Amino acid sequence: METINLKINGIAVEAPKGSTILEAARLAHIEIPTLCFLKEINEIGACRICIVELKNGKLVTSCVYPAEEGMEVYTNTPKVLDSRKKTLQLLLSNHNRSCLSCVRSGHCELQELAHELGVDDEGYYDGEITPSEIDTSAAHMIRDNSKCILCRRCVAVCENVQGIGVIGANNRGFSTSIGSAFEMGLGETSCVSCGQCIAVCPTGALTEKDYTADVFAAIADPKKHVIVQTAPAVRAGLGEEFGLPIGTDVEGKMAAALRRLGFSDVMEVALGADVTSQREAAEFVERMERGDTFMTTSCCPAYVEAVRRHAPELLPHVSETATPMHYTAEIARERHPDTVTVFIGPCVAKRQEGLHDEMVDYVLTFEEVGALFNARGIVVEECEEHELEHPSNEARGYAIAGGVSAAVEKLVGDRFEVRPVAINGLSPQGLKKLQSFVKGGCPGNLVEVMTCVGGCVGGAGVVMPAAKGAKAVENFATKGKV
Question: Cα angle vertex 150, ends 149, 156, to 5°?
Answer without folding.
Answer: 130
